[in-house]
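Re: that backbone. C-alpha cells:
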C-alpha cells in the first residue's frame, strides 16, 4: 500500500500485540506506512517522536524522506537539512548561505512569560556558542553581556513582557557592539575576532522567513559550526512557538537527518521531553546512537534500526534492545522497528518507491 497526495488513508487505531522483542511478527496497522504491514500512527503512539539509526548505504536517508513525505499529508513538516539531500515534492525550500536572501535569527525570543525573554535567550546563546566555538569562561561571560546589551538597545527588557514583542536584534547588532567595544576592551576584541567568520557569512543578519506547510531549511552550504547554531535556533523557535499555541494534538513534525551535526542540542531535548504535549513531534536520524542525546533516545517511542557498521553493533544492540545477530543480518532497507516494547522486522518502502507527483 502506498499513499498519493490526492487520497489520504484514514488514521485508525494501531494494534501492537504483546510479543517478545525477539519475535518479529508484523501486525496489521494503518497510518503512515513504513513497510510491509507496519504503519506508524501519530494518533495512537505514546509520543510522535522517532529515531532512525543506520550506517552508510543502509537506506537511512531514503527512510527518513519516506516518512517525512507521508507525514506531510497529516501535519505540517519542517526539515533541517544538513547535506542538501532531503528535497520533497511541494516543499518550500529556504537555502541559507552567504548569497541567499533567507536568514535565521538566533536572537528571536521565546515569548512564554514563565520561560522566555531576553535574559534566558542570552544565556542559552552564550552556552551554545561556548560549546560550538570552544569559548573560554571570560569570552562566554563577555558574550552573555553583549547579547543582553543588544536586547537593551532595542528597548527589550526582561521585566517588560510587552517589550518582547518589539523587533529583536540580530547579529548585525552584536557585530556593531563588539566593534564599538574593541578599542578599549581586549576581551571584546578577541571575541570579535573569534566571531569574524560568523559575521562574514551574514546569515544571522538577514530576515528570517516563516515556516510553511512543508518547509526545508537547506543548511548544506554552511560550515559545521554555523550549521549547529542555525539548526539549534530553528528547533528552539519551533518549540517556543508550539508552547505558546498551547496543548494540542499533533500540529508539526521536525525531521533532522545526520543529527550529529547538532550535537546534543538542548533544543532537541526540550522537544523530545515536552513537544508531544504541544503538538510538536521530532524524528532524528544518524549513523550512531552516540550522536543522539540520552534525553532524545529515552523520550522517543518509535525506533528504527537499519544495518550499521560492525563497530556499532554492541552499542546499537544495547541501546535498542535487539540482539547483535539480528542487527548484523539486516540488509540495506531492512529494519528492526520498535514501538515501545513491541518489535518487528520490515522491508522499508523507500521514498523513491512512493507515489509522488
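Recovered sequence:
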Amino acid at each position: 500500500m502506498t499513499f498519493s497526495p490526492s487520497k489520504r488513508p484514514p488514521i485508525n487505531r494501531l494494534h501492537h500485540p504483546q510479543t517478545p522483542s525477539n519475535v518479529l511478527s508484523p501486525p496489521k496497522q494503518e497510518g503512515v506506512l513504513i513497510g510491509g504491514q507496519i504503519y506508524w500512527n501519530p494518533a495512537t503512539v505514546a509520543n510522535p517522536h522517532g529515531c532512525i539509526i543506520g550506517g552508510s548505504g543502509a537506506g537511512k536517508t531514503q527512510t527518513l524522506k519516506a516518512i517525512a513525505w507521508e507525514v506531510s499529508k497529516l501535519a505540517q513538516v519542517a526539515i533541517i537539512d544538513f547535506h542538501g539531500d532531503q528535497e520533497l515534492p511541494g516543499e518550500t525550500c529556504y537555502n541559507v548561505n552567504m548569497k541567499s536572501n533567507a536568514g535565521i535569527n538566533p536572537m528571536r525570543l521565546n515569548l512564554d512569560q514563565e520561560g522566555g525573554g531576553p535574559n534566558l535567550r542570552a544565556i542559552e546563546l552564550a552556552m551554545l556558542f561556548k560549546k560550538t566555538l570552544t569559548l573560554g569562561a571570560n569570552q562566554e561571560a563577555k558574550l552573555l553581556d553583549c547579547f543582553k546589551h543588544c536586547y537593551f538597545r532595542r528597548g527589550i527588557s526582561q521585566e517588560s513582557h510587552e517589550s518582547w514583542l518589539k523587533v529583536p536584534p540580530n547579529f548585525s547588532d552584536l557585530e556593531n557592539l563588539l566593534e564599538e567595544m574593541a578599542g578599549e576592551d581586549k576581551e571584546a576584541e578577541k571575541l570579535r575576532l573569534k566571531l569574524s567568520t560568523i559575521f562574514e557569512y551574514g546569515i544571522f543578519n538577514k530576515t528570517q522567513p516563516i515556516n510553511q506547510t512543508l518547509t526545508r531549511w537547506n543548511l548544506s552550504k554552511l560550515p559545521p559550526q554555523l550549521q549547529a547554531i542555525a539548526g539549534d535556533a530553528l528547533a528552539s523557535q519551533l518549540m517556543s512557538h508550539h508552547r505558546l499555541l498551547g496543548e494540542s494534538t499533533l500540529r508539526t513534525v521536525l525531521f533532522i537527518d545526520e543529527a550529529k551535526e547538532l550535537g546534543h542540542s538542548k533544543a532537541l531535548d526540550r522537544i523530545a521531553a515536552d513537544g508531544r504535549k504541544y503538538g510538536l513531534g521530532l524524528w532524528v536520524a544518524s549513523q550512531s546512537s552516540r550522536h543522539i542525546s540520552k534525553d532524545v533516545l529515552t523520550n522517543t517511542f518509535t525506533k528504527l534500526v537499519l544495518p550499521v557498521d560492525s563497530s556499532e553493533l554492541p552499542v546499537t544492540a544495547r541501546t535498542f534492545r535487539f540482539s547483535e545477530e539480528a542487527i548484523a543480518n539486516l540488509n540495506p532497507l531492512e529494519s528492526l522497528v520498535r514501538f515501545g516494547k513491541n518489535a518487528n522486522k520490515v522491508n522499508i518502502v523507500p521514498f523513491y518507491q512512493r507515489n509522488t507527483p
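The chain is about 35% helix and 15% strand. The first strand starts at residue 32 and ends at 35.
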